[in-house]
Specification:
Blueprint: E1 18-21, H1 27-40, E2 46-49, H2 56-61, E3 69-74, E4 83-88, H3 94-106, E5 110-115, H4 122-138, H5 143-153, H6 159-166, H7 168-182, H8 190-197, E6 210-211, E7 217-218, H9 220-223, H10 234-254, H11 261-272, H12 281-288, H13 290-304, H14 313-321
Helix pairs in contact: 4-7, 4-10, 5-10, 12-13
Length: 327
Amino acid sequence: MAMISGTIDYSGFADADIAIEAVVENMDIKKKVFAEVSQVLSSKAILASNTSSLSVTEMARVSKDPSRVIGFHFFNPVHRMPLIEIITTEFTSQQTLVSTLEFAKKLGKTPVIVKDAPGFLVNRILLGYINEAGRILDEGGSIKEIDRYATNFGLPMGPFTLSDEVGLDVGVKVLHVLETGLGARFKPVKIFDEVLARKFLGKKSGKGFYIHGKERKVNAEVQALVKAGEVVGEQEAIERMIYVMVNEAAMILQEKVVDSPDSVDIGMIMGTGFPPFRGGLLRYADSIGIDKLVEGMDKFEARYKDGRFKPCAFILKLKDQGNRFYS
């Protein structure tokens, strides 16, 4: 800590080996910072972004040397979460990648290499899960019960507790980025917009899906927004939340955003706390069985007819060939 000093200008940046941008998630501001900082850094320095979902490629385009630009995405809480997503662009040099990997290891982090794409790896999968939890709630569910289903499954916290920790404004913003880049399946569910309109942002505002004080309790104002409906049982709720995650992970493999099922599973365990005893998201999918997985997804797709449960080509190919994610 004694070696850290603050500054209000770019003096001293010329001596840095690596600069990590962590300004607000606004592309115009990030591009302005990248354009300025890249003029000051040495020709050998790496310029990294801690963005959680925005295009690193777009930031690289305004930089003096795009080959030295890379994504370096930490996960909250940073002192506890071991994962770093290292995001490469079409411009990123091999030297930049190798140096960034070495730096991540020196920090004691577990790096996963990801190609630049909306939401990268972890947030793309995670936000689909949170959005599905929102749909289950919107249909007449209970905040507390849906969270309990998730923790019973082995997750460290439920989707609404997690949303409160991250901040609903942040989550909804990332959903909109994903919706723009990947389509309507990421459109934030109605109840998220309603909660956000009331400025219930989560822990940082004292109120979100829960009221945060000496004791955490469900925010009755939010639960009152839920229309009366048929409560989804635990088994179906888990299936729906997990199936959308598996389908998204398969699309990520299909698009070669990461190179292997291992990368997905390491990312989900280290970045979200997906229960290690289940082996990871895709190990768990294999334990269900691809045939049974497709059957379950087809059942939900027939009910909702909006495409979010439609098995992607990668999964259907596994089924047709009698394969699994892990051979």
